[in-house]
Amino acid sequence: MIIQPKVREFICTTAHPLGCEETVLRQAVCAEGYGTVKGPKKVLIIGASTGYGLSARIGALVNLDADTLGIMYEKEASGKRTATAGWYNTRAFEKMAEQRGRYAGCINGDAFSREVKEEAAALIRENMGKAELVVYSLAAPRRKDEDGTVWSSALKTVGEPFTEKSLDLRNNTITEKTIAPALEEEILGTVKVMGGEDWASWIDFLKKEDVLAENAVTIAFSYIGPEMTYPIYYDGTIGRAKKHLHKTAQEICIAHPDVQAIVSVNKGLVTQASAAIPIVPLYLTMLYRAMKKRGTHEGCQQQMSRLFTQKMFGEAGIVTDENHLIRMDDYELEEGLQRELRESWKKVTPENLREYADIDGYWEDFYHMFGFGYDNIDYTKDIMP
Ligand code: NAD
Question: In this structure, which residue's CA is closest to atom 34 in ligand 1?
């Protein structure tokens, strides 16, 4: 089968197995540049197949030389459909881990469910003994509770509607978008899906099953961003969920005094999850351009390898701010850079878009996420999906 990209606005419905393997290999080469540090050797990653979770898994293998168990929710190929990118990424990761003599287990199922938690505890016990680090990197549109209730997350404002410039990804132009305020139940749903409740229940469960090592560390990912995206992000429904996640870290530490639960505030990046947030992609393309110009741009792998080697398991130990947050958004929120972005935001129009925004960089990252756009891969070749 010849596999070509099929793009529908912010998602690509096909993925290329060789291209996804290329993504994983390139990320591993990038991780190598950060060296190896002494840290946890048994790592559980929840949401391990794409984006930050995949990079954390590659970082665990390359920068920590660790065994990993990865949890994901991906689709296998069937008939004329390719598998999802996360499925191919995981196959490529497993091959790489095997070559390095490290265990790489995988559960493809719903991480919110009790069954997957039980399966994870059993696999940890059998193959790793106890987990020393748990990375929580889920980004999901909905969650089925243990009592069967289905919660959906919404990307909306809280209180007032918000109108702002937005990137129309269908034809790379700027349009104006108005985001409606969320209903109370949508706010609650977003907190249920993307807040800290499930993270805490994972830690409670692993502790009860005695598969968490003493002094284990657990980390979840958040985003804050600059004030100009606050109405849609930090002050919106998703921000409510992130604030809940921050609070959950403290609650986990109180419930389990020997577990260190931390939130890392990461940089805004193109991933399958972030591409779906309105208004944010325009900010991201402008951020990419400004950060590349300054030489401070990082992708998911640079973020995760810097996190492990410099902000968690480096000589300085765990480096947090006064709110107990690890700030991987330090380069993004640098004042000079943000001042420049505020100015550019006022000036950017459909006519001068490419002057201020790295549209090509956005699409390059987008296609790479699905294994497309690599020069060294022959996309006209017939391949088994
Ligand atoms: P992503 O979509 O690339 O990855 C999500 C992962 O979760 C995938 O591995 C997917 O298979 C898995 N997953 C989804 N639903 C699942 C389920 N029910 N059961 C098991 N696995 C499931 O997303 P991402 O952008 O890497 O986001 C990961 C975390 O990082 C999120 O908490 C997000 O808010 C946060 N974050 C993202 C950004 C950004 O700009 N992308 C910035 C800061 C923080």
Answer: 222
Strands 162-168, 131-136: pairing kind: unpaired
Q: Is the CB of 264 under 6 A from ligand 1?
A: no
Atom of ligand 1 nearest to the CA of 273: 2
Which atom, in ligand 1's list, is nearest to the CA of 139?
A: 5
* Interval 137-171: pLDDT, tens: 999 999 999 889 999 999 999 999 999 999 887 78
Task: For residue 141, report the distance from its CA to the centre of ligand 1, in Å.
Answer: 10
Candidate from 274, 301, 307, 325 with most ligand 1 atoms within 8 A of CB, to mutate: 274
Name the residue among 33, 55, 44 with its Cα closest to residue 368.
55
Q: How far apart are CA 237 and CA 230, in angstroms?
A: 11
139 ligand 1 Cβ < 6 A: yes
pLDDT in the model for residue 171: 83
The backbone torsions φ and ψ at residue 88, rounded to the nearest 5 degrees and listed phi first, read -65, -40
C-beta of residue 274 within 8 angstroms of C-beta of residue 280: yes
Q: Which two tokens stand for residue 255?
A: 């419930």
Residues forming the active site: 233
Q: Which of 120, 143, 118 lies closest to 45, judged by CA?
A: 120
- Residue 346, token pair as written in the block: 């006022």
This prediction has a pTM of 0.98
Is the CB of residue 50 less than 8 Å from the CB of residue 12?
A: no
Predicted local confidence at residue 9, as pLDDT:
75
pLDDT < 50 positions in the chain: none
**Relative to the CA of 268, which ligand 1 atom is closest?**
40
Q: Is 166 in the pocket of ligand 1 (CB under 6 A)?
A: no
For 298, the token pair is: 């990082």
Of 263, 271, 307, which is best to mutate to test ligand 1, by the most ligand atoms within 8 angstroms of its C-beta? 271
**Given this model, what pLDDT does residue 109 score?**
98
pLDDT at 169: 79
Tens of pLDDT, residue by residue over 264-314, are 999 999 887 787 787 888 999 999 999 999 999 999 999 999 999 999 999
What is the model's pLDDT at position 277? 80
